[in-house]
Amino acid sequence: QKEVEQNSGPLSVPEGAIASLNCTYSDRVSQSFFWYRQYSGKSPELIMSIYSNGDKEDGRFTAQLNKASQYVSLLIRDSQPSDSATYLCAVQTGANNLFFGTGTRLTVIP
Amino acid sequence: DTGVSQDPRHKITKRGQNVTFRCDPISEHNRLYWYRQTLGQGPEFLTYFQNEAQLEKSRLLSDRFSAERPKGSFSTLEIQRTEQGDSAMYLCASSFTTGVGEQYFGPGTRLTVT
Question: Does A44 contact B41 at a Cβ distance shorter than 8 Å?
Fold first, then answer.
């Protein structure tokens, strides 16, 4: 059984702060990892992908992967109210479909 | 650049009726996926196609669900004899075959079964 676990939150941070979102997964053969942002009533939007251990930065977003610990995280620097959304962690193994966590709801307080 | 499109965006139907949804993937993508998402949950995989071939179906997908991608372009998802438990957002995504296969989602079809 492949499982992806996230803290459902809600996570509240003040505007300008760093938001830290965490995700653990159970399948050691997982190869690719993704973060999606989902606004209420909308579909998931891909914001980051990571495949190798370490950090990957894209603008205000940094994804971190530690395969030994089966852990992936997303940092959002200089958080803005427009970042308020649910963030979904998704994991892909040898099969092609994605396994999603239940998401972490982030609120950025102005 | 045209993204993934889905039609209709909303569907209200009565229990027992059949419904069909359409998905048009990003034109260069030859993989197409269907997911279902209920409130408070992440998307749940239903099935996927590579070109016109349906390569995988979730064991959770009941016999009332069928999907096609007849010419390797658009896809349809049909639900027969709908039940209230089928109420959900039905999401379509597409990706390239080569590379890491990042999946891009369409806007979804919200189904309400009354």
Answer: no
